[in-house]
Amino acid sequence: MPDQPPIRSLKEGDPFAGILLAQEAAFKTSAKGSEYLELKLSDASGDLKGFLWDLRAVEGPLEPIQADAFLWVKGAASSYNGRLQLRLDKVRFVPDGDVADVARFFPVSARPVPEMLAELDDRLAGVADPWIRRLLTALFREDEDLRRAFATAPAAKSMHHVYLGGLLEHTLSILGMAARACDHYPELNRDLVTAGVLLHDVGKTAELSYQRGFGYTDAGNLLGHISIEAEWINREVGKIPGFPEELRLQILHIVLSHHGRLEFGSPVLPKTPEALLVHYLDDLDGKLEVMFRALREEGAGAWSPYNRALDRMIYRTRWPRAESVQK
Amino acid sequence: MPDQPPIRSLKEGDPFAGILLAQEAAFKTSAKGSEYLELKLSDASGDLKGFLWDLRAVEGPLEPIQADAFLWVKGAASSYNGRLQLRLDKVRFVPDGDVADVARFFPVSARPVPEMLAELDDRLAGVADPWIRRLLTALFREDEDLRRAFATAPAAKSMHHVYLGGLLEHTLSILGMAARACDHYPELNRDLVTAGVLLHDVGKTAELSYQRGFGYTDAGNLLGHISIEAEWINREVGKIPGFPEELRLQILHIVLSHHGRLEFGSPVLPKTPEALLVHYLDDLDGKLEVMFRALREEGAGAWSPYNRALDRMIYRTRWPRAESVQK
Amino acid sequence: MPDQPPIRSLKEGDPFAGILLAQEAAFKTSAKGSEYLELKLSDASGDLKGFLWDLRAVEGPLEPIQADAFLWVKGAASSYNGRLQLRLDKVRFVPDGDVADVARFFPVSARPVPEMLAELDDRLAGVADPWIRRLLTALFREDEDLRRAFATAPAAKSMHHVYLGGLLEHTLSILGMAARACDHYPELNRDLVTAGVLLHDVGKTAELSYQRGFGYTDAGNLLGHISIEAEWINREVGKIPGFPEELRLQILHIVLSHHGRLEFGSPVLPKTPEALLVHYLDDLDGKLEVMFRALREEGAGAWSPYNRALDRMIYRTRWPRAESVQK
Amino acid sequence: MPDQPPIRSLKEGDPFAGILLAQEAAFKTSAKGSEYLELKLSDASGDLKGFLWDLRAVEGPLEPIQADAFLWVKGAASSYNGRLQLRLDKVRFVPDGDVADVARFFPVSARPVPEMLAELDDRLAGVADPWIRRLLTALFREDEDLRRAFATAPAAKSMHHVYLGGLLEHTLSILGMAARACDHYPELNRDLVTAGVLLHDVGKTAELSYQRGFGYTDAGNLLGHISIEAEWINREVGKIPGFPEELRLQILHIVLSHHGRLEFGSPVLPKTPEALLVHYLDDLDGKLEVMFRALREEGAGAWSPYNRALDRMIYRTRWPRAESVQK
Amino acid sequence: MPDQPPIRSLKEGDPFAGILLAQEAAFKTSAKGSEYLELKLSDASGDLKGFLWDLRAVEGPLEPIQADAFLWVKGAASSYNGRLQLRLDKVRFVPDGDVADVARFFPVSARPVPEMLAELDDRLAGVADPWIRRLLTALFREDEDLRRAFATAPAAKSMHHVYLGGLLEHTLSILGMAARACDHYPELNRDLVTAGVLLHDVGKTAELSYQRGFGYTDAGNLLGHISIEAEWINREVGKIPGFPEELRLQILHIVLSHHGRLEFGSPVLPKTPEALLVHYLDDLDGKLEVMFRALREEGAGAWSPYNRALDRMIYRTRWPRAESVQK
Amino acid sequence: MPDQPPIRSLKEGDPFAGILLAQEAAFKTSAKGSEYLELKLSDASGDLKGFLWDLRAVEGPLEPIQADAFLWVKGAASSYNGRLQLRLDKVRFVPDGDVADVARFFPVSARPVPEMLAELDDRLAGVADPWIRRLLTALFREDEDLRRAFATAPAAKSMHHVYLGGLLEHTLSILGMAARACDHYPELNRDLVTAGVLLHDVGKTAELSYQRGFGYTDAGNLLGHISIEAEWINREVGKIPGFPEELRLQILHIVLSHHGRLEFGSPVLPKTPEALLVHYLDDLDGKLEVMFRALREEGAGAWSPYNRALDRMIYRTRWPRAESVQK
Questions:
Q1: Among E30, E35, E221, whose Cβ lies nearest the Cβ of C313?
Q2: Are C17 and C41 in contact (CB under 8 A)?
Q3: Closest Cα of chain E to F211: distance in Å?
Q4: CA nearest to F231, candidates F222, F66, A195, B282
Q5: B322 vs A181: CB contact, 8 Å cut-off?
Q6: Which domains does chain C have, with CATH numbers?
Q7: What does the pLDDT profile of chain C (327 residues) look like in tens digits?
Q8: Pick from B169, C150, C194, D145: CA 20 to 30 A from residue B96's CA?
Q9: Nearest of F28, F37, F27 to residue F85 by alpha carbon
């Protein structure tokens, strides 16, 4: 993949040869009975439809050519009905082991991961409460597997922040807003809020599978991320001698209640100000990300298409900002 | 009322004579058939039960002694089953006109009104967009009746910020959080958000009656505060030549959608980021106020009584804040 | 379009040449990679699928051939699998300006508009209350733009009365039933009911776009028709000196509450008999229209297909009417 | 009861002796430990609280003095806290058999029963369809027990038309509106509508108990009135040789679906225009009756108290009717 | 059909000639404009797609070749993209009368019908209560049409036990569990439970049409199976002189309430232990059947596809059973 | 307490002296201003109202006389309005330490605890799967604190099985039904079901407080019993080397999903047959217990009072069981 161009940069007529991820792969039959292969191919820059009209041009066996496989393809970009597609001459399956950097085939956060990890460490360093800092350090600094997963996972399977690094980006964004909220509402316990925000979705690293496409793991489907993170908190707390039971309850409560309502999968309602705040800021940040993404989409009219995550269309006409001296 | 002590300052055995507001007034009959008068009496500091066991001690007619009437009472504080009450010797109806400062009999915001109005004016001065500033100035500075009402009204009949000045206090608190949110999410239009926050509940000045007790006006019951404020915005916009239609739509949309869901009385869902933000911060601020109030209530255990506004009990045990140098 | 036959009158083998509205237009690719054009073409009489198998037969540019465009087409009706379609030889884009009478390409009310306007005027003339008559006259007789729009708009984007003139037809039908209900329930205020019925959906003229296909305007999506008509009523009332505030509240209340439930977009529930009546008769008339339309559809079995507006199938078997002397 | 005055006609100080129905009866204890009897006593004109302060004044045994018993009482009307009550000197149980006309102790319809029965017979005579007429005649004319019950039962246990004769009054009112609706919507089958209206609540004669107070029978609680009337229709249809199966289905469908929604106890949704109409007119008539009753209640402000049947307060201020020549 | 192989037994390349049921039949057009016939063909063993690429190979008229028709087809099994299909050379319509055993073309219960009927008779013989036994015997033994239908009908149109004999299999399975429950909870009336289980879905024999495909009859759509079976119970009870009214109410109550909630179509909630039990065991048995079927489906991963009946995916990984001596 | 009689055995006029639990305690004032003490006093046999009319008869301080305190009382049973009460001459606070056997003051299961524990051990011995047996043995045999609590706790704070030992009784009853269900549905994994049933409510021992009255602990309110038991399962599994992860997921899934719906507090839906079964049998057993209790209540009519747990009245008329030879 070193030399291959991002597919979003292709123009009509450009030749292309390189490895792409098949997000979808279907053998179809034409009306006359001839078979062809229809693909949805992606790298980190985006995706394109691809068509191979003669199956004899497949090199090697047909069977492994499936969704979630890497494929080496050769062909050219052609425009059809105003949309670019790849008309292919050759297709060949590529084992995962032969692909240098798998993550480069997925959508990723616009923020660089090292920058985000540095911000995370700053937040951890700012925690004054010794018990909370110890718990968070154990999980987010010392558990290297978790730290790596936390920096890689998307925030959701669909809905919002659906890209690698999305979980960390979403968490840091809530953390930023939460810090401002603690400045505004002095009754809040800042360190407790920090713990709640950092832990509220950490179980998604085990709930979601994101090595290929984005889906749920067995544990994710059977337990849900809230139960998974409760389990991890209990396990880490168990390793810290003398960890106060009251603090364990307060933290677990924020995590368990952060979906805000039973029908959204929280077994309890938020009953402390910190739990209430984390619920609202989490919900707000996810929904705003969806809206901002819709605003940035190209080639659009005043209204976004119907958005399933928000169950509405989004109004994209923006009232221009007035720049002023006094601000 | 100049010399009379706040009733919250009374101790067992203290005599009391002065004017109080009767929030409740009921003539009851005892098992033996004798009648007595049971009152709930309040000034701005709080309320107490009052009992007059011999109706012949009422001076003047009985009829006007009703809920929402001012009464001159004389008696003494006595303790009964751990709670203070007023055992009365004399009760007399007082016409409203004889009461110097009616507002002093109601619960009021802890923040002084002049301070809040100054903060409001600062916010108005900070609006850069000329159209938005003109609209807000017309309503909140130039319309003196509205300005006065806006500084006096409670934020709700029950639920949250139920005291004189509560509407302004609630609005300013959201405005503070909203300013922080605009720092955090730069895509937001700050002036549009300011307009939405200031206008979102302004119709409550006409929806609620708060001269005596807190209730709804006819217009409040028949139209609701959202329709009332939409009417006012349209009326003021109509007086500003050239006011942009697009801006009118954007502002009205925030106001109409700020309850967030149709079943909560918003005829449309929030479809812009600014509308979404105003909805969330409004909801959050109201609910946090309820929680903080519950935390401050005296003589309580770890759990508040069932809270109807939040449909849950609130956990009052606080995890202590760690004070630290590095923050 | 003067000489072109209504497409519903075509029979297999009939040639056709004329202007039709493209409700849908898609360039598709066949299994072998050749491109073709698939259209849904309509005039006021109905719609047909159309196919152009060779894109070289398009005269002029391809780009403007889109949904909602007028097209001149030439070809012949052919029967395929029991359904008529148009097999096309020529297709050409036609600018709107070249189309004589745009409205003739849409489904229209079965009742002639002049007849309906005459009935409207009769109803207005029958209003005894001078304030109500003045308000209604200002809107429905003197505001010629509104009168024209009111006579043209459909009653909804989908659901019921989805054709030009549908709003007026629906309004008059409710008005007829409402007059009968006022005869039956003498406690009702007849003029107030008339005002409520006439105004309850008038904002749909601005909520819906119906120049091409039927959709929502920006104002429709952002405010909803209820808020739009409340705005108009307030504006007109403001022009009538001395208009009684009590009457303004009563009328606005009917309009605001006519969806009957908060989750259907009414910010308040009907709290007067007149408001309750308007809600029920509006709902009933819309749903009956859906049922009667389903009964009239041809080529059908005992059951209509699943009807999305009513969330059920409709039973089309009719029990025959007994004609009798004594009636 | 011949000579005893209606209790609604009593004034302060009036003596009273006669038989009343005890809607409630409770032996209570005073703070000092003495026992007294508190009653809610009613005749057809209304109800009053009654107090007997000395139980030794009860003639005969105490046990039968219970809710739903008839009592002979003697005492005087006294005013307490603005409300009239009966202060009693004597109380004695009266067996049902000793009460001449039990029905005179309950609230009754304002319309005389014979007048209503005559209207019912007119409606029956107007049915042109021979099968429908035969079915309705069998039930409402020939089955004398049912006819009598139909003329006596209330329309509901609470909610609306809660008085003797209320079921017939409610049914006739719907029938009147339905006749007007059939004039307005000519597609409707008038006789089918008549059948549906007459039968839709007839099972309430067996669902409700209304000999004493208003409650549910065992069959009412276990089956509901809809299933009861379906049973009766099937039984009567079975006695009419050749009754068309299609008509049986159409009638049963109206009856089964007339609550309009599954969660209101209809096992199927209305799927014919006639079923839809009956559902709407039934619902409308019941709710209007509640509103009109609230408007007529005396001594009230602009707003009714919270009304449980409608889940709202009702606005009682009426906009005056304009009387006009041209109507 | 005597010699034709079950289509599930076909392998790639196998020739096939015989009669199959067309569950779906569509004439389609290829991109080039040629027409072909696409079928979904089934016998009791399963179904396969079938394609006839040249319509001239249809013998006889095209019109009757529709969904739900029997067709004689000739062709060969071919594998396409890993799935078997039938590539056809000849297709001919076959009138129903020419098909020997129509039922053999539908999915059927895995349990032989005679075995199930024997179990049914055993259950009937075990009923000790004479009234209940008489009622059940009249319906399930003496009414031969009903007995036959009861042994043939599916349990539902979709959802669960969707195959011929499914109703009886489902009923017997609940009966087995119910017998065990009566052993466990001795307060239950065993014979009443038996009656409730046997009758709870018997109306499905008239609600569903299952001669061809599975759908609803007119009576099914207009009345629902619950009302149908209530009707039948009343009819049979009417034929048994002296049948106790109390027992009729108890049995009807179980049947009417067995969907457990009003929104699921039961007009009353279960109010006796027997009614509650029948509701739970019915619901449980249907849902378990769905799960067990999902577990048995071949070629599957750890998770079933989304299951509409249960609104979830089903986890198919099984924890192996430990076989042990002591059990 | 050795010699004092159960209060349920008292008859009018019986003297009583002994220790009782005050479930409620209120100092009230009479109309004349004298104070008295009203108590609700209980032992395991039931509860009675108690009145002390002269507060000077209290021995020792007044303050500790509160709800949930033990009191020594002396007085006599007197009948008032058909109900027994205790008229007291002496009342004295008793410290908990002075009460021999606290549990004897609460309602208890009708089944003796040793018998229930023996049945529990039998069930444990019958588990064939070595991993499951080891897990269950660790929790229910080796953890003596848990075993004791499991044998003592009620099953709920209200709703069903609200008495000491109720949790174990409820669990064993489900276990019995579950064993029968595993006989009936052979696809079920019996040992997995056993684990699920035993663990599904075990966290209630920490969720509920039942030392005095029945309420929720802090952990119960903040986490809920489902999260508590998930925590315990994870902790015990962590102590068993090599415990299979798949089995851990399967067991946790049953526990987490056993409320069956998200809005009832389960964060995931049941997705395995075992999870589905445990949910249904748990729900059924709790509701049947409520019904059977209502049937057994004395002095009742055909209908129970409105039952909040089931949101309905329960029909208490029983159809008599037929005893027969052939069963």
A1: E221
A2: no
A3: 30
A4: F222
A5: no
A6: 7-104 (2.40.50.140), 108-290 (1.10.3210)
A7: 557 888 888 988 899 999 998 888 888 766 555 678 989 898 888 788 999 988 888 998 888 888 778 899 999 998 776 678 899 999 999 987 788 777 677 788 889 999 999 999 999 999 999 999 999 999 999 999 999 999 999 888 777 888 889 999 999 999 999 999 999 999 999 999 999 999 999 999 998 887 666 778 999 999 999 999 999 999 999 999 999 999 999 999 999 999 999 999 999 999 999 999 999 999 999 999 999 999 987 655 789 888 888 999 999 999 998 764 333
A8: B169
A9: F37
